[in-house]
């Protein structure tokens, strides 16, 4: 049977938002992330990292920097008994840099390409799955992929929430302080979870 997944943004959601991570020394995993992923593992959820890394197209770092950073993430999660099922990234930019990275790809969030690829390769039930991120573009991506959206206030989240959401066309189904709080909320649900009505929309 297909399983649900939590698609997880990287910078600002599972690790600190520090601008472009152009050296592994700049990469800092949030202290609660291993617990969050471990809970997903235990609950039988698939966990998938989906991240835009246009710093490659912009020439700020080589593509293998992304691999080095994800080795750190994987190792720190493993030390906390946690494991991501897969990591997908988009190194492209539609208008900056040189080919092959300068391309109008289908995988740069908010396009749904990374999620659709993961769903095929990992046999994911998208109708029961969620996306979590700290930017409005993550909410848009969730919508474009047919996922429910959780918005976290870590990273850029609090600023976007307080100063940006008046302009948002889409609302996330859940707003949480952190990735850990998000995981607690979504895995506590039954399989017959229904989309919340307007009144269930959590505001702060
Ligand atoms: Mg982010
Ligand atoms: Zn791409």
Topology of this protein?
Layout: E1 5-8, H1 33-43, E2 46-52, H2 63-79, E3 86-90, H3 113-122, E4 130-133, H4 136-145, E5 148-152, H5 157-164, E6 174-176, H6 179-187
Parallel strand pairs: 1-2, 1-4, 2-3, 4-5, 5-6
The structure holds magnesium ion and zinc ion (ZN).
Write structural notes for this entry.
Strands 3-2-1-4-5-6 form a six-stranded parallel beta sheet, with helices on both faces. The protein is α/β, with parallel strands linked by helices. It has helices spanning 33-43, 63-79, 113-122, 136-145, 157-164, 179-187, and strands spanning 5-8, 46-52, 86-90, 130-133, 148-152, 174-176. Mean pLDDT is 93; it is low at 190-204. 32% of the residues lie in helices and 14% in strands. Helix 1 (33-43) packs across helix 2 (63-79) and helix 1 (33-43) packs parallel to helix 6. Strand 4 (130-133), helix 4 (136-145) and strand 5 form a beta-alpha-beta unit. Bound molecules: magnesium ion (MG) and zinc ion. Magnesium ion binds next to loops.
Question: What is this structure, in a nutshell?
Answer:
By secondary structure, the chain is of the alpha/beta class. The protein is 32% helix and 14% strand.
């Amino acid at each position: 049977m297909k399983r649900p997944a939590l698609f997880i943004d990287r910078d600002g959601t599972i690790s600190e938002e520090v601008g472009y991570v152009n050296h592994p020394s700049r990469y800092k995993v949030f202290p609660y992330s291993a617990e969050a992923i471990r809970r997903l593992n235990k609950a039988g959820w698939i966990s998938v990292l989906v991240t835009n890394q246009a710093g490659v197209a912009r020439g700020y770092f080589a593509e293998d920097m992304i691999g080095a950073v994800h080795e750190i993430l994987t190792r720190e999660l493993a030390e906390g008994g946690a494991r991501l099922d897969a990591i997908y990234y988009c190194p492209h930019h539609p208008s900056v840099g040189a080919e092959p990275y300068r391309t109008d790809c289908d995988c740069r969030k908010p396009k749904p390409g990374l999620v659709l690829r993961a769903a095929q390769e990992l046999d994911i039930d998208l109708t029961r799955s969620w996306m979590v991120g700290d930017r409005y573009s993550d909410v848009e991506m969730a919508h474009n992929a047919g996922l429910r959206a959780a918005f976290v206030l870590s990273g850029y989240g609090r600023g976007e929430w307080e100063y940006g959401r008046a302009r948002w066309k889409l609302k996330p189904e859940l707003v949480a302080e952190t990735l850990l709080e998000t995981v607690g909320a979504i895995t506590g649900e039954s399989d017959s979870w229904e989309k919340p009505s307007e009144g269930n929309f959590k505001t702060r």
